[in-house]
Amino acid sequence: MLYVVGFGSGSRENMTLEAEKIILKSDIIVGYTAYTDILKKYFPDKEYYSTGMRQERERVIYALENSKKKTVSLVCSGDSSVYGMAGLAIELSINYPDVDIEIISGVTSALSGGAVLGSPLGHDFTVISLSDLLTPWDKIIRRIEYASISDCVIVIYNPSSKKRADYLSRACDMIMMYRNPDTVCGTVRNIGREGQESRILTLSELKNTAVDMFTTVFIGNSETKVINGRMVTPRGYKINE
Amino acid sequence: MLYVVGFGSGSRENMTLEAEKIILKSDIIVGYTAYTDILKKYFPDKEYYSTGMRQERERVIYALENSKKKTVSLVCSGDSSVYGMAGLAIELSINYPDVDIEIISGVTSALSGGAVLGSPLGHDFTVISLSDLLTPWDKIIRRIEYASISDCVIVIYNPSSKKRADYLSRACDMIMMYRNPDTVCGTVRNIGREGQESRILTLSELKNTAVDMFTTVFIGNSETKVINGRMVTPRGYKINE
Fold this sequence. Notes:
2 copies of one chain form a homodimer.
Chain A: E1 2-6, H1 17-25, E2 28-32, H2 33-42, E3 47-51, H3 56-67, E4 72-76, H4 86-92, E5 101-104, H5 109-117, E6 118-119, E7 125-129, H6 137-149, E8 153-157, H7 167-176, E9 184-189, E10 197-202, H8 203-207, E11 215-219, E12 225-227, E13 230-232
Parallel strand pairs in A: 1-4, 1-5, 2-3, 2-4, 6-13, 7-8
Antiparallel strand pairs in A: 8-11, 9-10, 9-11, 12-13
């Protein structure tokens, strides 16, 4: 039996009761090294198998092979589908007709990071990854453009890496074609983990801010504001009646 | 102290460890009647205060008033920000300078419903509510249009109500201007609750399907497919190597 488990931000408390229960009953925990390192702190007595970045296919096949006879958790931070391993596990499972797969949802960083900032996701929003490893940049920037035009809150995953240090800045340039430079934005780094830090800033400040791959970026819509140091996108309720 | 708590889909297991802990330590649980009814099953010994729909402002003020001297959980299904009460609580808290507020994230139905269907959110996605109580329809349909052009997966919340029975059908018409009628779609009703049901269907079938307000709707992107009865949006990993 294979469970693909999203374990949330990385704090133990952000995990669902279901994720914890399934990890506890699993024979092997399989995942990217940075993720299994987090879980080892909470579940030190389990058996782990981990591989590095860009070894996703090999990791999923290992999990499927072992699921024939054992209970395996293939773990992802956040949710198991959002830029996670659930899709790849289902795709590769066609070669493992006897293996049952269950997908276990989790709190993705748009939500856990949003709670740190306040309530940036109070209205319609778009989640876009700036990683161009598997998606052409043209398609990414086009999605940024249309989300900007439609005044959706935009949450950016994987905003930066060594090879693409200027991607967030280029995304901000595109957004500023349609949205005010004073638009309220936020960044959250190491959500739920040691050294968590967050910042609220304007879109034009964000353009000139260096962020790393452990950061999730929030770009408000035209109504997003700062209240008592928190980023809030109103749903539209009347406040004064 | 006021906590605004997202408790996930409604199954106890979809709750985070943190949400459970905070509800257990709260003196009063405040929420929409349908939500407190769910929590009463899991936490029968707590004190509850509930009000009906469209009484959000009054409910939040009750929670803030009581937070001066007590520990209060203002509860929302799913996440506490995504069409939830977190934003309104922060907005109204300017009149309660002595009340501390903490926002507790949860698994929103895009994620919990996605896990039921398979892995529809394997790539960039947009969450849009079709409720026009607080947002003009023109703005909603424009967001649907831009999400369609940019080939994002679209998750639709509040797809229907008595007064707007044809909104989902009109949204499908708009999407079909840019996306194939055979696009893979999914619906999940009563996620994590009694009577949970899900269906995978094409966009043209979805257009002619009646759904209710307890349903979350998923519209795939151009690469979304059905694998072993599951809806999967690939991230783009090479499967055959």
